[in-house]
Design goal:
This protein has 5 helices and 2 strands. The protein is mostly helical. Strands 1-2 form a two-stranded antiparallel ribbon. The C terminus is likely disordered.
Length: about 130
């Protein structure tokens, strides 16, 4: 199981650095079969600078944005931020969230409170969904 997770992370990082100028710069020094401890931590400031423009200026996206939604903050930090989500990701995201809740022990009849504000959902939740 652990080896499958490691292989999955390696595949994801290799895909991101092949398709995204930002991740190419961030992960460019890693070998194809890197160790997880070698992955550099993404710098928050450089990530949002690279992710600030609309396509095609955006340096983070791994493919053209052709459908889906753009979630943007109002710029409470004086720098508006955006997360791009494809139609497929909008469809699949709730399925993954539901699977996590079930694995955590959610049972039929249990209730889940959504305590996200729109800003927190955009800033935190979608950035977890979209690397």
């Amino acid at each position: 199981m652990l080896s499958e997770i490691i292989a999955s992370v390696q595949e994801l990082v290799n895909f991101a650095r092949e398709k995204s100028p930002y991740y190419s710069r961030c992960y460019g020094n890693l070998s194809k079969d890197f160790n997880l401890t070698q992955i550099p931590i993404v710098d928050h400031t450089t990530f949002w600078v690279a992710n600030s423009g609309l396509p095609p200026e955006n340096q983070v996206l791994t493919s053209p944005m052709v459908d889906g939604a753009v979630f943007r903050t109002g710029g409470t930090t004086a720098t508006p931020k955006a997360s791009y989500v494809t139609r497929a990701e909008l469809r699949e995201g709730p399925k993954g969230w539901a699977a996590c809740l079930i694995r955590a022990g959610l049972q039929s009849g249990d209730r889940v409170a959504n305590i996200y504000t729109a800003e927190i959902c955009t800033r935190d939740f979608w950035t977890l969904v979209l690397p």
